[in-house]
Amino acid sequence: MKTGETLAIVGATGSGKSTIISLLSRYYDVSGGTILLDGHPIKDYTLEELNKKIAYVFQKAVLFSGDVASNVDFGDNDADEGTLDSAIEISQSAEFVKKEGATYPEKVEQGGNNFSGGQKQRLAIARAIARKAEIYVFDDSFSALDFETERNLRNALKKSMSGATEIVIAQRVSTVKDADLILVVDDGRIVGRGTHKELLSSCS
After folding, report:
1. To which H or E segment does residue 122 belong?
2. How many other CB atoms sit within 10 Å of the CB of residue 39?
3. Most buried by CB count within 10 Å: which residue of 19, 55, 76, 146?
4. Three-state DSSP class for residue 131
5. Tens of pLDDT along 85-101?
6. Is the pLDDT of residue 138 over 70?
7. Crossing angle for the helix pair 81-90 and 147-160, to the nearest 10 degrees
8. How far apart (Å, rounded) are the C-alpha atoms in residues 107 and 67?
9. DSSP state of 33
10. How much is the pTM?
């Protein structure tokens, strides 16, 4: 796929969707074939280089004790206030973290236990946005969001991430139907490839 495009991966639980992402992040290496990134074998990159290029948001969002700002800045440690503000707004988090007279005073308990599942997912997405990576991977990261919040978030991401490549793993068709390319995975194999419209007629 080309820079700036959106790749979606769909399939049932256990079909192998997250395994593809594990190979991309080099949690383990492929036993055959080659994964190319910017035209170079992914094995040529150090893990540090990959982590700088790729921002991940997993389904199970992890938050740390502290406050909202420290959690959103966790993946960068050098983001300015404008970057944090933008990430908070794009991720649709402002409504529950901004308080009158202060920027982000909300205390975060260990594990983010004082936030709902959807709020934790949005803060994890804000953390990825603040990193300003080349590639964003959303591994079922919208599953706890209601449809309206997801739609608003996806629209905001589309406007703000022009030029960045996006990989989305999801089970909701509504989440992936606008992707440039959709891969349908079943039992560890890619059984369908195309746009939403193409797959409606070619992939059962």
Report:
1. helix 117-131
2. 5
3. 55
4. helix
5. 899 999 999 888 876 44
6. yes
7. 140
8. 5
9. S
10. 0.86
